[in-house]
Every structure is written in structure tokens, then in C-alpha cells.
Amino acid sequence: MTDKIKVGIVGYGTIGKRVADAVLLQEDMELIGVTARSYNYRMISAQAKNIPMYRWPEADELNGLKMEGEFDDLLQKSDIIVDCSPKPKGAENKEKYYIPKKKKAIYQGGEKAGVGDVSFTAQCNYKECVGKDHIRVVSCNTTGLCRTLNAIKSKYGIEAVHATMIRRGADPWDIRHGPINAIVPVLELPSHHGPDVKTVLKDMPIFTTALSVSSTLMHMHTVTVDCKETPDVDEVLKLFENTSRVRVVDNASKVRSTAEIMEFAKDLGRNRSDMPEIVVWKEAVGVTGNKLLYVQAIHQESDVVCENIDAIRAAMGFEDAEASIKKTNESLGIDFCKECTE
Ligand SMILES: NC(=O)c1ccc[n+]([C@@H]2O[C@H](COP(=O)([O-])OP(=O)(O)OC[C@H]3O[C@@H](n4cnc5c(N)ncnc54)[C@H](OP(=O)(O)O)[C@@H]3O)[C@@H](O)[C@H]2O)c1
Fold first, then answer.
1. Which residues, other chains included, contact 288 with Cβ-Cβ below 8 Å and sequence gap of 6+?
2. Ranges of the chain whose pLDDT falls below 50
3. Which atom of ligand 1 is nearest to the CA of 92?
4. Is 341 inside any structural domain?
5. Are residues 290 and 145 in the same domain?
6. Which of 17, 37, 145 to mutate to test the pocket of ligand 1 (most atoms within 8 A of CB)?
7. 178 by DSSP, 3-state: which?
8. CA gyration radius for the chain?
9. How far apart (Å, rounded) are the C-alpha atoms in residues 8 and 220?
């Protein structure tokens, strides 16, 4: 690949603005621009950062924001679109714009699995996705489950997984969603996360439940894995420490909650003070017989961003999964200072 990959981004919200920043940091990619659909502080910040904006077809009044062109121009100029619109708009945009224009596209985890030719988590199934025209990066929760379960499966084999997702009620900026004073169970078994993991790790025997709580700071998972071979706590901790995009933290360093993880992320000073690694607590890894138990936290706004970057390379035919993951990690500071809390 000699020419840079020309990337267009549809939707400049929680995920889209982060993917835009990440694309700007890739030496093999060029950010052609992002869509503008309404006048808001995110578009003002895009303009301040000189990110070219293209008017969305059904855009509201854009209040004098400077447009580089229409959405059709963005489509023409881009090799690939990363669609970061809210579900189910990605699937609608696929039928209306990307298929007619024969444009490759990456979709997000809010979309149904069928929107993509494949679902994607880089360290699990990159190779399967090389050259595909439509790739769906799975949701933040599914990405978190896939990263750690893939590592466990490779070392011990897996008979069964039972996991509970304790989900943040809303993103930090979001004043509309909740709950603000309740714990809300998902009244559907399994929750959609288990079947979604199987779109990436095909034969994973997983069953999930989920509930939402009054927090904006991360999701938390409690995971119980029935392993084929007996796991060992120290060995599992080493395994997680050596797994890319997973970070082990401990009580001794005073990281005891999602609040402290996000403060730690601010202190590390990376992009937007995000924590793209899946965070596992050292003290909360335990073994009884062949059962392995652990607790992990997921920064919902950022763990899928690096996945989108790798998915772009995969779609464009770049075959070397490890090289892509390494490039992405280095450019985004992922795995930085992982050993600081060992
Ligand atoms: N937030 C998370 O924690 C998270 C984590 C992982 C995956 N995801 C997935 O990522 C996707 C995007 O979620 P998000 O949280 O980033 O959403 P978001 O913050 O609400 O941002 C959505 C963006 O898409 C634009 N948009 C709205 N309708 C559109 C349409 N019909 N076509 C094109 N663009 C449109 C919005 O413009 P306006 O501002 O003008 O409305 C906004 O810029 C969803 O599939 C979601 O499930 C979200």
C-alpha cells in the first residue's frame, strides 16, 4: 500500500469524533472529512481543528459553519467510509448511499450483525475480514468480552462462559438517558451481548445478562469461565498483562473503581483522556476448580476506536494483522505504561 487510505466519516458524535482524531494520527491514512448534520459544539470544534466538513443531505441549519462540500463530494473523494451514525442509520446509509456508490464502509456495534459481511475485533478475527467491503466493529461491551475471552480460550480452552454486564446509564455528555436513580435489568435472556460475541468468536459457549446503573463512567463485567484446563491465577494475570489492549490494575495503586480508572486515564494524558484498554482487576481474578472468575471495566467511548482503525486497513486489503495492531497501538499510545501497576 503506497498511497494513503482516504477516509470519510459519517457522524461526528461520541465515536465519530474519536475515530476522526485517530485517523489523523495514522501515517497511512488521510482524513478527507466528516459529515455535518446539525449546528452544535462538536462541529464548532471540528472547524477549530481544521477538519473539513461536508453537509449531510438532510442537514438542519448549519449556522454559518464552513462546508468543504456536500456529502456526495465526501463519498466521491473517500476510499472508505466509517459510519458512526446512531443505530439503525448505518444500515439505512448502506442501502441508500454506500451500495449504490460501491463504497466500502465500516459500521458500529449498534447496528444489527447483518449490516456487515463480517463482525470484527482485530485481535480475534482480523484475517477473516481482509478485503471485505462491509465490516461491523462490534459494540464496546462485545469488544471487551472478545479481547479477554480470546486470550483465555487460546491458553486453557473454554467449556462455558457466564457474564453479567453492568452498564453505564448514559455517556458523560448525554442529558437525555438514564437511569438517574435506579438499577434497570435487561428483561431478555440472554442479553444481546452473548450472541454478539459469537459473531466474532464463532463457537464461544457464552450466556450473558445485563443491567444499567446510574453512572456515566464505564461498563463493568463480572465473568465466570469454565475452562477446559485448570487455570492458575498468577498465570492468568501474566496472560492478561501480555495481551494487547488489556490492562491489569490493582488495589495497591488505589485503582479501586471506574472513577479512579478514568482519573488514571486523565493522568496518563493520552487522546481525550480515554482508556482504550480493557481494565482487569488483579485482586478480582480468582480460580475455583476449573472455573476462572474475573471483573473487567470497559471505557465505552474509546475501546472500539482502535478497532475502527484496524478495520479500515483490513477492508482495504492490508493483510498483516499484527502489523496493523502495532501501528494503531503506537500511534494512539495504547498499552502505554501497562506495567506501571503490576
Ligand atoms: N457511545 C458509546 O458508548 C458507543 C460505544 C460503542 C459503539 N457505539 C455505537 O456507535 C454508533 C454511534 O454511536 P454514538 O454514541 O457515537 O452516537 P452519537 O454520539 O449520538 O453521535 C451520532 C452522530 O451521528 C449523526 N447522525 C444522526 N443521524 C444520522 C444519520 N441519519 N446519518 C448520518 N449521521 C447521523 C449525529 O449528528 P447530530 O449531532 O447532528 O444528531 C452525530 O454526529 C452506534 O451504533 C452505537 O451503538 C457507541
1. none
2. none
3. 31
4. no
5. yes
6. 37
7. coil
8. 20
9. 32
Per the structure, the count of domains in the chain is 2
Instruction: Identify the residue whose cell numbers are 482503525.
Output: 309
Three-state SS for 279?
Answer: strand
Q: What residues contact residue 179 under an 8 Å CB cut-off, 6+ apart?
A: 169, 212, 213, 214
Q: Mark whether 167 and 192 lie in a shared domain.
A: yes
Does residue 144 share a domain with residue 108? no
Biggest CA pair distance of the chain: 65
- What pLDDT score does 340 carry? 67
**Whole-angstrom distance, CA of residue 189 vs CA of residue 90:** 26
In this structure, how many other beta carbons lie within 10 angstroms of the beta carbon of residue 269? 9
CA dihedral (260, 262, 268, 269) positive or negative:
negative
The domain in which residue 193 lies consists of 140-303
CA 239 to centroid of chain Cα atoms: 21
- Residues 314, 290 share a domain: no
Give the pLDDT confidence score for residue 338 in this predicted structure: 82
Say how far apart CA 309 and CA 317 lie, in whole Å: 13
Strand ranges (DSSP E) for 184-298?
184-185, 206-213, 219-227, 246-249, 278-281, 286-288, 291-298
Same domain, 118 and 240: no
- Write the CATH number for 275: 3.30.360.10
Q: How many CA atoms lie within 13 A of 204 on its CB side?
A: 29
| Residue 263: all three cell numbers together | 482519573
Do 298 and 181 share a structural domain? yes
Q: What is the Cα 251 distance to its own chain's centre?
A: 26
Residues at CB less than 6 angstroms from ligand 1: 10-16, 35, 37-38, 40, 56, 84-87, 89, 93, 108-111, 139-140, 171, 300-301, 304
CA 90 to ligand 1: nearest atom: 32
Q: Which amino acid is at 225?
A: V
Alpha carbons 214 and 179: distance in angstroms, whole number? 5
Q: Within this chain, do residues 9 and 132 fall inside the same structural domain, yes or no?
A: yes
Pair (60, 203) in one structural domain: no
Is 0.85 surpassed by the pTM of this model? Answer: yes
